[in-house]
Design goal:
- This is Lipoprotein.
- The chain has 230 residues and is α+β, with helices and mostly antiparallel strands.
- 17% of the residues lie in helices and 33% in strands.
- The strands form 3 sheets. Strands 1-2-13-12-11-10 form a 6-stranded antiparallel beta sheet. It has a 5-stranded antiparallel beta sheet with strand order 3-9-8-5-4, with no helix packed on it.
- A hairpin with a 4-residue loop joins strand 8 and strand 9.
- The two termini are 38 Å apart.
- The relative contact order is 0.16.
């Protein structure tokens, strides 16, 4: 894993020049325009719009009225050069049980599995569906339907939670959850953006630990309930 820690991404260029006998000037080459650098220290408007369409923003504000996605800021970036991959061999009931919860890419060649690692779904004798957690850890995996390969994207211990995931494009995934990066910092709401196929990660965090206490895992419960009606 290659990590790059970023406290606040601030770039500045200082151009100075002085000469008594020579003229100094800094000009863009002829025919070239100035470059506007996109601010990636906060979540992009496109990602925030995805959250809004999914109902996640309204849900969060129903519990934390002052909730604002623009208060998330980037804390870490890295490239995952040793992602754990294996052959995808689902059980006979996999698609029946987890099908409503799989997140397919826009071109349908891949899907994200958020739940099968630690959520047990089964039909009871009365025909009702029962959902129960089968362990404290959580895994987010990516399944390539063309190659039959399953790749682990994220793995969180008991202090972590994965609420949902979305495809921003065929090559970009956004995951919403919470984790405790350091005991002293407490649990924080987090957003991971993952660029494929390089597996380049950006981690955004909300410093408000009080919001994390109110929201961690709550959207996941709602998402699982909605899946029962599909």
């Amino acid at each position: 894993m290659k990590y790059i820690l970023t406290g606040g991404l601030l770039f500045s260029i200082l151009l100075t020049g002085c000469s008594n006998n020579e003229q100094s000037a800094a000009e863009a080459p002829a025919g070239e325009d100035s470059v506007v650098v996109e601010d990636n220290t906060i979540l992009s408007p496109e990602i925030v719009q995805v959250f809004g369409k999914a109902g996640l923003t309204d849900f969060a504000r129903s519990r934390v009225p002052a909730f604002n996605w623009n208060q998330f800021s980037i804390t870490t970036t890295w490239e995952e050069d040793s992602a754990l991959s294996s052959s995808f061999t689902p059980g006979k009931d996999y698609y029946t049980e987890y099908g409503p919860y799989l997140k397919y890419s826009p071109d349908s060649t891949r899907f994200i599995d958020l739940d099968s690692y630690n959520v047990h779904i089964r039909k009871k004798g009365d025909g009702q569906t029962e959902i129960a957690e089968s362990g404290p850890d959580t895994e987010v995996s990516l399944v390539n339907r063309q190659t039959g390969q399953k790749t682990r994207l994220l793995f969180l211990g008991p202090a972590g939670s994965i609420d949902d995931a979305f495809w921003e494009s065929n090559d970009r995934i956004v995951v919403v959850g919470a984790q405790e990066t350091a005991p002293a910092a407490g649990r924080r709401l987090t957003v991971w953006t993952i660029d494929l196929p390089a597996y380049s990660y950006q981690l955004y965090e909300l410093p408000d630990t009080a919001a994390a206490k109110l929201l961690t895992g709550q959207w996941r419960k709602e998402r699982l309930k909605k899946g029962l009606n599909k």
